Amino acid sequence: MTKIQEYINELKEKSDKRFDDFDIIEIDNINSILDKAYIDKPTWLGGDKEFVCLFIDLDKSSKKSFKKHPKTMAKIYDYFTQNIVDVLNHPTIGADYIDIKGDGAFGVFGGDQASFKAFYCAITFKTLFEEKIKNKFGTEEESLGCKIGIHKDKVLVRRIGKRGEGNYNEVWAGKLVNNASKLASQKIEPSNLGVFDQNLIFVSDKVYKDFEDNEEFGLYRCCDVSSEESVSIINQKVPVFTRVEEPSEETLGDCFYKTDVRWCNKCADKYIDLIR
Known about the structure:
Layout: H1 4-21, E1 23-26, E2 43-46, E3 50-58, H2 60-66, H3 70-88, E4 97-101, E5 104-109, H4 114-137, E6 146-154, E7 156-160, E8 169-173, H5 176-184, E9 201-204, H6 205-213, E10 242-245, E11 255-259, H7 268-272
Parallel strand pairs: 1-2, 6-9
Antiparallel strand pairs: 3-5, 3-6, 4-5, 7-8, 9-11, 10-11
Helix pairs in contact: 3-4
């Protein structure tokens, strides 16, 4: 058996070699991270290419409400998380990479339409949550809510584990996933939030600018969500997003944006059809 000091020396030698051989390989496609060839190498995947992350989780109040009932909470987690994954697997707007984190899940999107696909997935889940999930589990005493954040940034990721043993996983460094999670956790004062005052979608400034440059993808509301008749107000240019100053996290920049929208019966498919 190797003595502990010898073991420590071997680890030091191995670590020094990894440090000297360290490299970051630029990628254009998020599927590159699934290549097992990188497991044994001190190689991270990244570069200047930007991707978009959508992060969805149960809010803290929901976890607190049900914490006294472990079996109930487990059933809710299972139901909630599986629906996130199913939405992220949508055949048209689905993510290129999906993973579970904590009590929720996230998806990473690549390509020129990444911000739009992520946002449409967010709206799809929000609509599903508010119309089908929330009332299934929530009561007057125990409310159920979700939190949603979308961020765009460079990626830095690698697979860690041992080849052939199947016990490896992706490790995400940098701001992409971390900031999407932080956005989802932002706390907003419960006033003047519009028709739906819960389950807001928060997007970073970079994501918002993609909509600003391509307003046909949903910069303005397509119809009046407060009207049962879904009256079109497209000519009034009512913004989908509201700017929020001074984020609680410095890494989120000077501002981010919030929205309370969900799909209406009139226009949802029109936006999905814009994705190619």
